[in-house]
Design a protein that fits this description.
30% of the residues lie in helices and 15% in strands. With 559 residues, it is of the alpha/beta class. Helix 7 links the parallel strand 4 (160-167) and strand 5 (197-205). Helix 6 packs parallel to helix 7 and helix 13 (403-415) packs parallel to helix 15 (438-462). The chain starts with 21 loop residues before the first strand and ends with a strand.
Length: 559
């Protein structure tokens, strides 16, 4: 749109007044699931959140916080804090993950970005190594993206390329690995005809080599490291097609669990170990099964297994896999460029804003909320407060974290009457949920609930409005489940703890003495998600949302 016809001015809402103090509370990792002993929110004493749910049914509902609702490719993609806060703040759904990679490859922008420039510095003297899942499954990676990456890298100066493949058989049919390897081999042969030394260097099945998640089994990552970095594996072959065909002949063999192998030359030497001066790219776009290998490749200080040697490499992920850990620090595709966020609109329309969390989620309630943008829109209108998180301990040691301090800061901001919006993130459910410590997570949920009460009490005092919601699930389900939904047991018969986010919807509740009597949740947005929250909040401030925002969740009935 041309700048001439664009205005930050929002239309007044026809039925809702301006000038009410609105508290926006995001409970991190707080989804809605069936009540059982592994639902820490259910087990914990959470009288405040319970009262919101049991109060007026037209002022409490669930919204979607995973998959396409937050711009991820499939409904099997868990939500996360980064995409969740992007959606909450932006009011629109932006492409995340695979879609972003497609756009960057199609436009060629990926080869002009900071991440590619960084790895390119190794092309002269070193080898470019590509590690990832070889299939067209589209869940973790896609063959066509690898093909475009190979083509673009070779056109941009890579002279020696080694691909470390992981066979799939989980998101695609078992046995399809052979065809994918043949396709890749033919592409590499074409590159060799152009004078580029390109070949497959190692491989293994995704569930047995490299692609573990949630620190379930570091041996999986170690098997990959030994083959990819050290060039050592129990099986050695002259070609990858031969490797996959031979290993699939074993009884009970399947693509997911193929053992690690390395490709060797005629003298039996591995053709592509990773050494000092090389560049490495992990080309999966989905994060959960790349975080562990990223830690092994990037962290100087690492004790999960003996790496034997830690080569000085230039490493980049296809994307940044963890926004909290900023891991990896270099990546080929940047997060989406998000403009005209709700925060920027509201500041332009006189809404004085206060935002607060502790270190681990401070960026979410500011940077990610504001469309991956640092700093203030208008320093005279905004105040952002970061409370230092506990450091040097895991969060289950102090599960209350800084919930009380965050709530007190919010309370003081509300009672000061200097702000029209007071926005916080309470990290407990997520950060303690990730530790897998069920007892500590119950304590964490209670602490978050108590923090919500402090904030709602302050809203009561100033005649304000509250919006309480979450960014994705975690604490509401702490156990891995089988197809029937029953807890999954390990070989020893113990339950398997789930430390990850979930696919569950999250609650949103509205209320407070400042909420006009006729306001209620609409019935015609059944699939509402996090992106619908922005227009909702704008309405509660007395404004209509921009026309391209996802629709508001509320309507106003005439008396």
């Amino acid at each position: 749109m041309g700048s001439s016809d664009f205005s930050w001015k929002l239309a007044d809402h026809p039925k809702l007044p301006k000038g009410k103090t609105v508290a926006v509370v995001v409970l991190d990792g707080w989804g809605e699931a069936n009540p059982d002993e592994y639902n820490c929110i259910h087990v914990a004493q959470t009288p405040t959140m319970d009262s919101l749910k049991q109060g007026a049914p037209e002022r409490w509902r669930l919204v979607r916080a995973h998959g396409t609702a937050v711009g991820l490719p499939t409904e099997d993609d868990m939500g996360n804090s980064e995409v969740g806060h992007n959606a909450l703040g932006a009011g629109r759904i932006y492409a995340q993950g695979a879609k972003l990679v497609d756009l960057a490859l199609a436009s060629g922008k990926i080869f002009e970005g900071e991440g590619f420039k960084y790895i390119k510095e190794s092309f002269d003297q070193g080898t470019l190594h590509l590690i990832g899942l070889l299939s067209d499954g589209g869940v973790h990676s896609r063959l066509d993206q690898l093909q475009l990456l190979l083509k673009g890298s070779s056109e941009n100066g890579a002279k020696r390329i080694r691909v470390h493949i992981l066979t799939d058989g989980r998101d695609v049919l078992d046995g399809s690995s052979v065809g994918f390897v043949e396709t890749l081999e033919s592409d590499l042969a074409t590159l060799r005809e152009k004078g580029i030394d390109a070949q497959i260097a190692s491989g293994g099945g995704r569930m047995y080599v490299t692609m573990d998640r949630y620190e379930n089994d570091w041996d999986v990552v170690k098997r990959g490291w030994d083959a990819q970095v050290l060039g050592e594996a129990p099986y050695k072959f002259r070609s990858a097609v031969e490797a996959v065909k031979k290993l699939r002949e074993e009884p009970k063999a399947n693509d997911q669990y193929l053992p690690p192998f390395v490709i060797v030359d005629e003298s039996g030497k591995a053709v592509g170990p990773i050494v000092d001066g090389d560049a490495v790219v992990t080309f999966n776009f989905r994060a959960d099964r790349m975080v562990m290998i990223a830690k092994a490749l990037e962290y100087e200080d690492f004790d999960k297994f003996d790496r034997v040697r830690f080569p000085k490499i230039r490493y980049a992920g296809m994307l940044q896999y963890d926004g909290e850990l900023k891991l990896p620090s270099k990546y080929l595709v940047s997060p989406p460029e998000i403009e005209r966020t709700s925060g920027e609109y509201l500041v332009h329309n006189g809404v004085r804003t206060f935002a607060c969390s502790e270190t681990v989620k401070f960026g979410h309630v500011t940077f990610f909320w504001n469309g991956n943008r640092s700093g203030y829109f208008d320093a005279t209108m905004e105040e952002y407060v970061e409370i230092p998180s506990d450091s040097g301990i895991t969060f289950n040691v102090q599960p209350k974290m800084k919930a009380l301090e965050i709530a007190e800061k919010a309370r003081d901001a509300i009672l000061s009457r200097k702000f029209d919006q007071v926005r916080v993130n309470l990290p407990n459910g997520d950060m303690v949920g990730h530790t897998g410590d069920i007892e500590a997570t119950v304590v964490a949920c209670k602490a978050a609930d108590e923090a919500v009460k402090i904030i709602l009490d302050a809203i009561e005092q100033v005649g304000g409005i509250y919006v309480v919601t979450a960014d994705h699930g975690n604490a509401e389900d702490m156990v891995k489940r089988n197809k029937t939904g029953q807890p999954q047991l390990d070989k020893a018969g113990n339950i398997q703890i789930l430390t990850s986010h979930t696919l569950q919807p999250v609650p949103i509740a509205i209320g407070g003495p400042g909420l006009a009597p006729g306001v209620r949740f609409r019935n015609d947005v059944p699939d509402g998600g996090l992106a619908n929250v922005a227009a909702t909040v704008m309405n509660l401030h007395g404004f209509e949302a921009p026309s391209d925002y996802e629709p508001t969740l509320v309507e106003v009935l005439d008396d």
